[in-house]
């Protein structure tokens, strides 16, 4: 055990440069290890003390700032160490550990450990380390990985916040760092990044408005000051604002629009953090659930899977499945029971593993074949066997096949819906499960199983060997794949971390096992039935086909209308000014024609001096002017 202590101490050193925030982690470490290890082994575990100077998010952000100035090996190595360190700190920090500060004059908590933040920190750190390794092996630049680490750091800051002010601060930084990660790739990613930024700017603004309203009602930003956000308008604003991040139906189009565009390694990071941080935010805002949110989650699960099935672009298909799978989590948060909450966070954990793995495998295909469209792929099992194996494990995991991690967490959420007699949600989620099997049978069939088409990306280069995946890519993929299987076969290892209650979670009952197999069979039959019809489909429009041009023309109309209004006002002012100067320079000529009309005389007869008034007329005019001035003064 001395070796383990040395390893943990070395990783902790990254987090202990300065500061005085000290916590004993003995209790938490013992609780978790007693749950995960045999009783005989637990007593031998050491007592570990460490000093944590600042929140783990700051450690990641520090490495992000210096990474561009280091070599690729050192920059990525430090990134992997610090993200792995976050996972370890999250695992062993005691429940209740927190770092209170004063932020902008308000009480805030920069680092708060509870069951919600612990499970998020463990998985965010774990997958962050794997993604950094994958990035290094995928020839990602230090600058891109620095943006990615900034994205990871701000996400970690959000989930470890102990108050709404800190959460929204990191939330907005997360939108900025993720946009920068998208933009870094250039090309089509730039315009997609602008649309991404607009969506998240609107969502963040709504969340800020909800939090300010909540503060006015409660008098504090701290999570402990109230149970969730203030009901009514604040809760509604927060639901829509967070709904952008999680991909509510109608607010989801930034997902398939953005994630297929950047570098393959950037997509691995992007698929993890934004949507799952949104799920965490929903759990904080609605700790007791909300039935409307539960039904929205079910709708997300079904709409996302239908659109995913109709896609041919690999990463676009996977992006729609983010919406679908996050729908399960949102449904669990909305149902609000202890089992549903535990299931939602179990699915967050599991989904991050298999979704990152799916994007890794797709990235290997794109980098080695140069093609994203499934129509032009095939036969890759013989060129990329380990990638094919990793894909198979991830596909079975996301589909919820028995023995893989998605089967456990999906079953917890559907069981929670069933126990609460929410039959509509229950059957919608089952239907989405069938669609998920169909989607990944399609992906696997076209990319790996069928023979390569003669005119496809592989058929045109049949004599050219496809370079296998890099060593680091294989390590990252197979490492994550092993976790998908481990948490599928030994779910108690995950249950020890979850909020809520897993007392009613029984993943290996005969009924649940039969349900998983039946969904798989229905998925095979379903794909066989729709294979030919969907193979002839082109790109299927989503609501962005209306939203994007509509927003463009409305914005252009507003800009042009405002510009024309200002131009008209400017012309009028210039005309009045020019006329005033003319009158001032030659007042007699200016009044000749109006005076001739008033006096009913020929203008040519009105020569200079012919308009002189008598003394009586002059006195009358002065009196009239004085009366008008007096009346005006009195009215004021």
Automatic annotation (TrEMBL):
The keyword Magnesium does not apply. The chain crosses the membrane at residues 54-70, 77-95, 115-134, 146-162, 168-185, 197-216, 236-255, 264-283, 289-310, 326-346, 352-371, 383-404, 424-448, 475-498, 510-530, 611-631. GO terms for cellular component: plasma membrane. It is a multi-pass membrane protein. GO terms for molecular function: lyase activity; oxidoreductase activity. NCBIfam families: PRK12668.1. This is Formate hydrogenlyase subunit 3/multisubunit Na+/H+ antiporter, MnhD subunit. It comes from Haloquadratum walsbyi J07HQW2.
């Amino acid at each position: 055990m001395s070796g383990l202590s040395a390893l943990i101490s070395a990783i902790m050193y990254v987090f202990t440069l300065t500061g005085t925030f000290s916590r004993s982690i003995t209790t938490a470490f013992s609780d978790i290890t007693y749950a995960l290890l045999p009783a005989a082994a637990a007593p031998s575990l050491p007592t570990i003390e460490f000093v944590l100077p600042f929140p783990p998010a700051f450690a990641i952000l520090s490495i992000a700032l210096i990474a561009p100035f280091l070599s690729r090996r050192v920059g990525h190595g430090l990134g992997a160490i610090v993200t792995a360190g976050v996972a370890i700190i999250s695992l062993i920090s005691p429940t209740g550990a927190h770092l209170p500060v004063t932020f902008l004059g308000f009480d805030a908590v920069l680092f708060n450990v509870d069951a919600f933040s612990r499970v998020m920190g463990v998985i965010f750190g774990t997958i962050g380390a794997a993604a950094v390794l994958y990035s290094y092996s995928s020839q990602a630049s230090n600058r891109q990985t620095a943006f990615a680490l900034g994205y990871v750091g701000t996400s970690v800051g959000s989930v470890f916040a102990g108050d709404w002010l800190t959460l929204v601060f990191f939330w907005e930084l997360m939108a900025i760092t993720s946009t920068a990660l998208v933009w870094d790739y250039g090309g089509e990613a730039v315009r997609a990044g602008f649309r991404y930024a607009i969506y998240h700017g609107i969502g963040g603004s709504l969340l800020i408005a909800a939090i300010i309203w909540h503060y006015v009602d409660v008098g504090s930003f701290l999570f402990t000051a109230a149970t969730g956000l203030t009901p009514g308008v604040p809760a509604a604003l927060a639901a829509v604002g967070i709904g952008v991040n999680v991909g509510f139906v109608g607010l989801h189009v930034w997902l398939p629009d953005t994630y297929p565009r950047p570098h393959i390694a950037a997509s691995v990071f992007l698929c993890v953090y934004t949507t799952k941080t949104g799920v965490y935010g929903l759990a904080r805002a609605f700790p007791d659930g909300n039935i409307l949110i539960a039904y929205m989650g079910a709708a997300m699960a079904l709409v996302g899977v239908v659109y995913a099935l109709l896609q041919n672009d690999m990463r676009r298909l996977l992006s729609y499945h983010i919406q679908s799978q996050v729908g399960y989590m949102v449904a669990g948060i909305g149902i609000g029971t202890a089992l549903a909450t535990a299931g939602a966070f179990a699915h967050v954990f599991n989904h991050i593993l298999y979704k990152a793995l799916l994007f890794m495998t797709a990235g290997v295909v794109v980098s080695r074949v140069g093609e994203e469209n499934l129509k032009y792929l095939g036969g890759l099992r013989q060129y990329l066997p380990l990638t094919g194996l990793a894909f198979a494990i991830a596909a079975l995991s996301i589909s919820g096949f028995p023995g893989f991690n998605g089967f456990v967490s999906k079953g917890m959420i559907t069981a929670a819906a069933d126990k609460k007699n929410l039959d509509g949600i229950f059957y919608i989620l089952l239907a989405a499960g069938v669609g998920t099997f169909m989607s990944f049978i399609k992906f696997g069939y076209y990319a790996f199983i069928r023979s390569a088409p003669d005119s496809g990306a592989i058929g045109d280069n049949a004599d050219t060997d496809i370079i296998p995946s890099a060593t680091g890519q294989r390590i990252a993929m197979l490492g994550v794949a092993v976790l998908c299987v481990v948490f599928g076969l030994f779910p108690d290892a995950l249950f020890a971390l979850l909020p809520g209650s897993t007392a009613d979670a029984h993943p290996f009952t005969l009924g649940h096992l039969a349900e998983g197999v039946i969904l798989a069979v229905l998925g095979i039959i379903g794909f066989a039935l729709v294979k030919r019809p969907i193979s002839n489909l082109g790109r299927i429009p989503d609501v962005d086909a209306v939203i994007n041009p509509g927003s463009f023309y409305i914005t252009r109309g507003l800009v042009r209308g405002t510009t024309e209004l200002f131009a008209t006002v400017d012309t009028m002012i210039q005309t009045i000014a020019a006329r005033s100067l003319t009158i001032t320079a030659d007042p007699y000529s200016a009044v000749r024609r109006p005076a001739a009309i008033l006096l009913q005389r020929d203008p040519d007869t009105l020569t200079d001096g012919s308009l002189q008034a008598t003394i009586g007329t002059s006195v009358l005019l002065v009196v009239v002017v004085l009366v008008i001035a007096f009346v005006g003064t009195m009215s004021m």
